[in-house]
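Subject: Sanity check before I submit

Could someone independently write out the structure tokens for this chain? I want to compare against mine line by line before I put it in a report. The sequence has 478 residues.
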Amino acid sequence: MKKLKSYHFIILLLILVSIQILFFNLIVRNDLRVSGGAFTSFLNNLFDYDNFVVAKLDNKFNDFQLNQNFSDILKEGPNDYIQGIYYPGKTLKYVKKVSDGYLLYEIPEDLVKTPKNTDKIYLIVVGEEVVFSNNNLLIGNNPSKIKLFSVISETKHGFKVVVGYTIGSIVLYDFLISLPLVLLFAFFYYFTFYYYSSKYKKITNSISNLVESLEKTNELINKKRIVEYYNCEINSPELKLLQKELQKMVHNFSDILEKQKIISKEYEKTLEELEITHEILLNRNIQLISALAEAVEIKDSVTGNHSKKVVELSLEIAKILGINDEDEIETIKYGAILHDIGKIGIPEAILNKPSKLTPEEFEIMKKHTIFGEKIIKSIPGWDLVADIVRHHHENYDGSGYPDGLLGEEISLRTQVVSIADVFTALTEDRPYRKALSVDEALKIIKGMVGTKFSKRIFEAFLKALDRHLNAVDKNELL
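---
Independent answer below. Compare away.
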């Protein structure tokens, strides 16, 4: 009879230890899931900021500023090349496809923040290689060879995020968590089966109540993510002591979750600070735009009003073409405002010359597109605006300047600003001629279709002009 009771007791102990370990591992996994989600959101926000765009590459991964080709180390999407290109040390790299090439995002590893004083292992994985970890020894390893009790998530940019503990740590934690229960039950076993066998039934009922209470606690964790223990009726002083220890354990687990909430709030605060910083940078860029536009207007009295008219007509053409993306609209707007910003580097004698420019003077005037690009490229994230500034004098047949782009090599946004610029210039007074009428300007522009402009851009331009002008019957021009 005594052997039978011992057998039952061992089974019960194993069940309770298993429940306790399962309970603890559920808490740990939930904690890892929260940490992984917070870290994933942090990475998503980092790569959403254009401030980390370090280079504009063409379709063959050439960087003309550095005069280098990166096709052997870079690819579209997340990259497993660890060494920094534009920053010293190790960096995270992401290559984003855009209409006329690629944007390279590069983030130094010291900007990728993980919680301090933690036993958790944080990994960022690309393909079969760890590209970041708070444990430097793991960087560059194959993640399949790193044994972790972990959860895995993925950022919207394709980086795999792994957060976990080493298997050795989990085994140690499970052992330490189970040890008090084993010792308590060993103590209980000794006194129950050798000194209090008559109270066996009462103790069994108490244990059943205890198990039921633990099951309720486990159910709360699974359904509501709440750690709470409900006291149950226990007749044994020893089991009351056990229940007290269980209450302490549940309380400790609850504290762990609270600390995790605090860490999550810190991540949220960091994200808010990044958003504020982004807003400040955006406002500074807008102020810089105003200052640059004013500088050109002071130097060339024609250019100021000219740019405003080009902006209005360019935005109208963009609507006709179905360009609805807010970022693209903003790019066209600022490109139209600043398309002639490079004229700040052209001598006033050439800018305001009342007669036709000599070939030498015209070569100098053409350089305003290159000067303008250099000015605009100094603003982080404005590479597409710089594209408009550099190429608004390109021609559809390849005869324009400064690069002789042909056809659709000229971006749609640049074609929009280019035709608006030409029409506005024709209908304005210039030092060397009086303004042309709308009718005369339209006939000249129609003659440029196929050489300077595509037919698609010309038709969209006419429809946009119809919204403002009714003096000319443009149906004859279609």
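---
OP: Matches mine. For the report I'm noting this point. Residues 471-478 have pLDDT under 50 and may be disordered.
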